[in-house]
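Lab notebook, design round three. We kept the backbone fixed and only want residue identities now. Task for the bench partner: fill in a sequence for the structure below.
Input structure tokens:
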């Protein structure tokens, strides 16, 4: 087989800025060792997130010019709505300015004290929006999904046995719906199989529960189903996505991922009563139902991006780029979460820096060293992001201590990825000199965005 190439050519470029190691030392200190606080001009390669960082196509930019900016009944809305309906099959589509706005609206309607929302693994904003209403967010990842070193095709699957016993324990009346995050971001960008989605739907039906998808990376999930699940080899990505959504009653979506845009999201569902309640919140918080916190041009770009993301050449290149980085790191014995996920490589900080205990945030220490070494910005997805405290103020660590290298879509080329691998391998070679860290400031909610750190 020949090299899988980027299925695009570059029309417009953006310079990236080189810094020296001593400059980076100062920059990192001034940012309190939190990569969210570094200015992007001080970053050479930005792997902080794949969210809102995609390169748009010339067709999307053309859509930006075509955007209809009417306050009500914009043409761009109807175009957006028809693409979302084609893919998801849901009756009602509510545009929002990003994924968490969809979550905020939905959970403010269905959440509240003594309510429970099971998921394979909630991402941080979903968990935060649920907990903000007083409800509880609970994760039921399968056993294999808890082990970064174990390979399996669908490590994003929800554990249906645990889910069922939980439903019986708290009672189905206290569960407004079950969620599945495709792909499972906090668990390593791992896909959920069609079989698991179907079985979750069946279980939900038995208890009269609804099922919602957190669909941010639905196309990457669909591609994994195509290449890994029996019976889908010759099914199109669109048809796979349609089947995935057919088992659900609704979805939340951050268009900043698989809709290949820089801003946007939506909420979609079949239940008319629920939609009306959500729409009322939308009008108060986001805007009129035909723009929902976005400009008409944003809706055009999303509509076009949702078509492009279904192209198989694109998804093959996308998934292969991540796998390529993973292979380079594995060849140098760098411990990563296996197999590589859909949008990112996750370093396994517990094995990378075993001398640093969880309450000294090994992932954060690795994140800092990667920046110092090569100007690459990554993010900790471990006890900084998901850690909690017990009543004595002792850290309850996250299940996994990970460092995420998220690849923006269509932005970096193979030589960028080669450079990233070289830097990570250099950091790994001097791992024994990595030092533990402590938090000197933290906000009460989503602390990772603004936390300040120091070396111990
Ligand atoms: C990611 C993000 C964006 C992010 C969020 C928090 C800290 C760092 C970066 C956002 C997601 C997501 C899933 C599965 C909902 C959202 C919220 N991910 N569900 O991975 O991954 O979407 O950002 O549009 O509000 O870097 P939003």
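Proposed sequence:
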């Amino acid at each position: 087989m020949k090299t899988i190439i980027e299925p695009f050519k570059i029309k417009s470029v953006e310079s990236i800025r080189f810094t020296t190691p001593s400059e980076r030392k100062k920059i990192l200190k001034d940012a309190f060792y939190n990569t969210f606080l570094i200015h992007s001009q001080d970053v050479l390669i930005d792997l902080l997130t794949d969210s809102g960082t995609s390169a748009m196509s010339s067709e999307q930019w053309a859509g930006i010019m075509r955007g209809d900016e009417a306050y009500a009944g914009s043409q761009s809305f109807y175009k957006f709505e028809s693409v979302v309906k084609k893919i998801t099959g849901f009756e009602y589509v509510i545009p929002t300015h990003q994924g968490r706005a969809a979550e905020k609206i939905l959970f403010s309607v269905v959440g509240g004290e003594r309510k429970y929302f099971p998921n394979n693994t909630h991402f941080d904003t979903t968990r935060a929006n649920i907990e903000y209403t007083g409800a509880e967010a609970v994760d039921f990842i399968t056993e294999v999904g808890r082990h970064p070193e174990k390979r399996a095709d669908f490590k994003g699957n929800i554990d249906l046995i645990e889910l069922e016993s939980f439903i019986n324990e708290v009672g189905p009346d206290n569960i407004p719906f079950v969620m599945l995050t495709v792909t499972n971001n906090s668990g390593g960008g791992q896909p959920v199989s069609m079989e698991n989605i179907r079985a979750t739907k069946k279980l939900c039906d038995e208890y009269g529960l609804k099922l919602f998808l957190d669909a941010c990376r639905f196309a990457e999930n669909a591609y994994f189903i195509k290449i890994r699940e029996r019976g889908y080899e010759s099914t199109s990505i669109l048809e796979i996505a349609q089947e995935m959504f057919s088992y659900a009653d609704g979805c939340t979506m951050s268009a900043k991922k698989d809709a290949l845009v820089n801003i946007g999201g939506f909420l979609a569902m079949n239940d008319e009563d629920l939609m009306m309640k959500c729409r009322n919140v939308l009008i108060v918080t986001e805007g009129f139902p035909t723009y929902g916190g976005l400009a008409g041009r944003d809706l055009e770009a999303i509509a076009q991006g949702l078509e492009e993301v279904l192209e198989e050449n694109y998804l093959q290149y996308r998934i292969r780029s991540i796998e390529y980085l993973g292979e380079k790191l594995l060849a140098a014995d760098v411990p990563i979460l296996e197999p590589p996920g859909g949008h990112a490589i996750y370093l396994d900080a517990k094995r990378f820096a075993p001398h640093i205990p969880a309450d000294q945030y090994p992932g954060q220490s690795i994140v800092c060293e990667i920046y110092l070494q090569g100007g690459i910005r990554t993010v900790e997805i471990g006890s900084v992001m998901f850690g909690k405290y017990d009543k004595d103020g002792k850290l309850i660590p996250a299940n996994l201590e990970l460092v995420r290298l998220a690849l923006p879509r269509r932005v970096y080329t193979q030589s960028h990825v080669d450079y990233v691998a070289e830097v990570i391998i250099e950091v790994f070679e001097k791992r024994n000199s990595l030092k533990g860290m402590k938090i000197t400031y933290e906000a009460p909610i989503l602390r990772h965005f603004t936390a300040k750190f120091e070396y111990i």
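Keep this in mind before ordering anything: The chain has a mean pLDDT of 97.
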